[in-house]
Design brief:
The protein is an alpha/beta fold. The chain is built from nine helices and eleven strands. The strands form two sheets. Strands 3, 4, 5, 6, 7, 8, 9, 10 and 11 form a nine-stranded mixed β-sheet that branches. It has a two-stranded antiparallel sheet with strand order 1-2. α1 packs across α2 and α2 packs across α3.
Amino acid sequence: MRAPTFDLTLLRTLVAIADTGSVTAAAKRLAYTQSTVSMQLQRLEAQLELTLHEREGRRIRFTSEGERLLTHARRLLALNDETWSDMQARQVTGDITLGIPEDYASLLPSVFAYFHQLYPAVGLKVICGTSVHLVEQVKAKELDLALVTRQRNSPGGDVIRREPLVWAVGVNQQPLLSDPLPLALYSPGADVFREVAEQALQAAGRNWRVAYISQSMAGLAPIVTAGLAVVVVTRSMLTPALRALDESSGLPALPMIELALHRAPHRPSEPVRRLGELIREQLAAPEQAP
């Protein structure tokens, strides 16, 4: 009798679901349809005759058996990828310098982990800065890639995602929304968020005052969660400590912003090309209504 053997494709799907948290996101990572991902998970459960997951809305929660298998799956896939890389005649090697605003760092941990899993011989350096400055660094060839908010005065780059902007306040405390509206804003020139907020309020005939200024959300968050100011963020930047305001707040609607990937003006190396493709695949998402 032949010893049973795991299908690594099914295990890779299991790990993708665990890393992304849903069938939909795993399908995007693996370039599969959602039905294919669901069927592969079902096949794995059928082969083992075990229940590996439970659904919680759109999210996937692994059972204790699923968590045990996930640990083994990561080890098996790591060994497989290591062996494959070692046996390849042309291994992907090199160094990459990527620039991102601090506020977008939370979008990329799974991308970094997956990229390192695929290309362990590639050295990745990440530099945080404002979108405006990062675009300048890419043009100066100081960065290989930069994921930024697309600026009105410096378009370009490949748009990989569009997100709605929202007004947000602390989940437990908020300021009075009467004029002059207290705002927590990015430093002048740091990003397009400030410009969009001021233009929307001006068009609506609203008055405002600047209560706090910072170059990142980490600096703005304390005064917002304390209930002293309103801030403009994308939906993906909302944390459990923040709450988006709806149209009943009386504040004007805000437009979409675009996340763009800029590349240095020279032919990209193989590692740079592959990281760029992975970022595009992982972050691409349909537009959402505010």
